[in-house]
Amino acid sequence: MNAKLLLQRTQHADVISVAPIKGAIVPHQDSIYSANLRRHYEELSRFPDGFLAYGDALCSFNPVYGQGMTVACIEALILGECLAAGAQGLAQRFFRKTSALIDIPWQIAVGSDLQHPRVQGPRAAQGRFINWYISKLFRAAQQDDVLAARFLEVANLTRQPQALLEPRIALRVWKGNRRPIGATATPPCISSGSRTASGLTDRVGAWPIGLL
Ligand SMILES: Cc1cc2nc3c(=O)[nH]c(=O)nc-3n(C[C@H](O)[C@H](O)[C@H](O)COP(=O)(O)OP(=O)(O)OC[C@H]3O[C@@H](n4cnc5c(N)ncnc54)[C@H](O)[C@@H]3O)c2cc1C
Question: How far is CA 38 from CA 1, 55, 85, 166, in A?
Answer without folding.
Answer: 34, 10, 26, 29
